[in-house]
Each structure stands twice: as C-alpha cells, then as structure tokens.
Amino acid sequence: MISFSTEKRKIFVLDTNIILHDSSCINQFDEHDVVVPIAVIEELDRFKKGKEILNCNAREFARALDRLTGDRIFNGGVPIGPGKGKITVYLDRDFHDTLKANFAPDKPDHHILNAAYHIACENSFERVILVTKDVNLRMKAKSIGLMAQDYNTDRVQAPADIYKGTRVVADIPSSVIDQLWAKPFEMDAAALALANPLLANEYLIMKNGSKSALGVYLPQTGSIRRIDTQVCYGIRPRNAEQCFAVDALTNHELPLVTITGKAGTGKTLLALAAALEKRRHYRQIFISRPSVPLSNKDIGFLPGDIQSKLDPYMQPLYDNLAVIESNQNGKSGNLNGNGRRVKDLLEEEKIIITPLSYIRGRSIVKVFFIVDEAQNLTPHEVKTIITRAGEGTKIVFTGDIYQIDHPYLDGQSNGLSYLIEKMKGQRLYTHINLEKGERSELSELAISLL
C-alpha cells in the first residue's frame, strides 16, 4: 500500500490522453496528489517518436518526470513543486476481483482502471478521481464506484456563448451614421453611448431605419472606422460578416485572426483570397490543416507515397484554390490571368499546402499562415503554432466549433474556442463569426434541417 498525502488532498489518477493533450497537466492540480499508472508510461513510450504535437507532448512529459524523479517516484511520490502535491508512478497490480468478471486484462485502459480502483480501496473512494478524456472509460469507472471526470483546465464556456466578434447596434441617430459617410469616415465611439464597452477590433452593424453602416472599433484612437465592401483577389463579400472578415484578413496591423462558421460560409475561401491579394507583402503562404484520420489511424496507415497519403486531407484546400482560379479565369477570359498565377505560385512553392506536422522546423517569418479546421487542434497545439510566429507573419485560424472530428475534443475544450475566449479584446487580434451560408440554397437548407 502506498501512503499518500493528508486526507484533505484528493488523488487524481491520469489517463494517457490527458498527458498527450497537455504535457504540463501535472501542474494543474494545485495541492492535490497526482498518480500516473505504469500502464500510462508504457503507452507514452509508443508516442515518443514522430513529428506530431502528440509525440512532442509525450517526450516533454517524460523529460519533466525525469527532472522530478528519484527512487521515491515509485514509493510515496515526489513533490511537484511549491504549493503542489506529490506525483507517483503506480506499478501494476493483479486485477482486482471486482474488475475480473467485466474487464479484459488485455486493454491498457483496463490496467489504468485497475490501478485507480486499487488506490481507491487502499485510501478512500471519496478521495480518488480518474481523469480521462475518454467518455467510455469514465462510464466504466463510474460503473464500479469510482469518481471520474474530464480534464477541465482549458475548457471555455459553451459554444453558443463564445465571443462572436460582431455586434448589431440599432436605433442609432441619423447624424451619427452620417459621420461615418463623411471624411475621414471615422467617428468617436463614445457617440454610440453603448451600455457594454466595445472590445478591441470588434465589428459593428449600425442601423437606423433606412440608413446603415458597417464599422470596426479601433482601440488605439477610441474611434470607429467605416468598413466598405472590397473585392479580394476576385472574391466579393456577400454579407456584412464576410466584409468584416476581408477587412481583418487584409489588415497588416492584425497579425492574428480567427474566423468561425458552419460549412459553406466562406471561411477558407476568404482566407485564401486575402492571402493571394496580399502575397507581395509576405515571403510565402502556408496553408495547413490538422490531419484527423478516420478511426484515429495515422497517415502512415494509408497506401501510396507521401503525396498520396496527404491528398485526402489537403483536397478541400485545393478545391478552394480551384474556385479562386476559375473565378479569375472567368474574369480574364483566358489562362493568362491570376488563375494561371495560382498554379505558378504552387509550383514555385510560394504557396505551400501541407499538414501541420510538416510545418514543424520551418521558419515562420514574413508568412501568411492559414490553419484550416482549427477546431481539431488542442489548446496546446494552438499555442505552439502562434509562439512560432516571427516578424511580419500573419496567422489565420478558421474552423467550425460545432463540427469536431478529434476523439478527445469538444466545443468547449478545442483549441479554436480556447483561443477566441482567451484572446478577445487584445489589440493584435480580432475574430469574426460567419453566420450565413453562401455555398448554395440547397446547402443552406441541408445545414438548417438535417
């Protein structure tokens, strides 16, 4: 029997997916004790090689544990740090009689469950909590009387309540709107007399009867600047939110932009068009997306060479470039316009389309970096990407926080939602949520009803 800290402290038993989600997770449990079953260490060993963020997290956790470790790591634990509890690696035990009848011993999850059950029997079921992002394992734990919970440290509020980036202001005096239509096309934000103060770079739809105007709040001057519809590399915005998105994407003073919206709202298309419109200001355009394969299999499972493996994940990006190309070709009437230029940029590697794991090690300086499907990233992955940005780089995250393919993320724990909530109101950042689908009437009907 291992002796843990005073009974006032809880004992958190960690599943492997918690460590792969956040390599610094052991620092998030305050004064309570943390237990890592040996089965988790064995599972982490399978992840230590590779370029993905999961592999980096596995290696980083192993190094952090090694820095703390001593002989006592397997016998009573070692202190994590000042004001923290202890961390212990718990060696495997024979399957408890309560578990033998229902849980096969050939699954690592069941060994983690067995470790947590033994610890609860040796201490107290009220003190021991299994922490896992696997909902099935949480249900199994609860079925045998163990407390189990998700890792909530980086969770944000419900998706419906997440910051939208835009605000509709009605019944504005005509004289106020008239100010925006006269030079210098700006007005003092105080003239709106809003109950809730505006956040930095928040966009506004201002209305009064037949008069209206679009604007953005500038924190540097405390003023509102009028937004006009601008064509971006042949792509014309079709609604107010798309106008806001184009303004943010083409603004050099905003190095970080997030765009959310359901399928067909134009998130990726607008980001690509803006990157091409402003390409002369950047060394390269990086376009990437996380590869979350079916059944959680790695891309190495697929047949063919590396390009064949990557094409299924990258095809939506090529599709959007094809839309831009055809739009430009139709406009120019031949293949000598910007449509042909898109092909040239791809061949010259001025535009690089690649999974995020292949971005690692590249120099992200003076790059227009688009990360598509960002709702499938963890908060730690999003942080890793942003902290790699050098001078002159603009990073754009696009995604739909209601459509998550990652097995251990949801609307409140994914990296895109986390980024929006943590960054809102910052001078270097803005967010736009695209509400209206513009793909087709049939697409909009299916999204609404099915």
Automatic annotation (TrEMBL):
SUPFAM superfamilies reported in the protein's UniProt record: P-loop containing nucleoside triphosphate hydrolases (SSF52540), PIN domain-like (SSF88723)
For this UniProt record, give its keywords in alphabetical order, as a comma-separated list.
Answer: ATP-binding, Nucleotide-binding
Question: Is Transmembrane helix among this UniProt entry's keywords?
Answer: no
The record, for InterPro entries, names: P-loop_NTPase, PhoH, PhoH2-like, PIN-like_dom_sf, PIN_dom
Q: What is this protein called?
A: Phosphate starvation protein PhoH
Name all PIN domain ranges: 10-139
> Would the keyword Aminoacyl-tRNA synthetase be found if you checked this record's keyword annotation?
no
- Organism of derivation: Desulfosarcina ovata subsp. sediminis
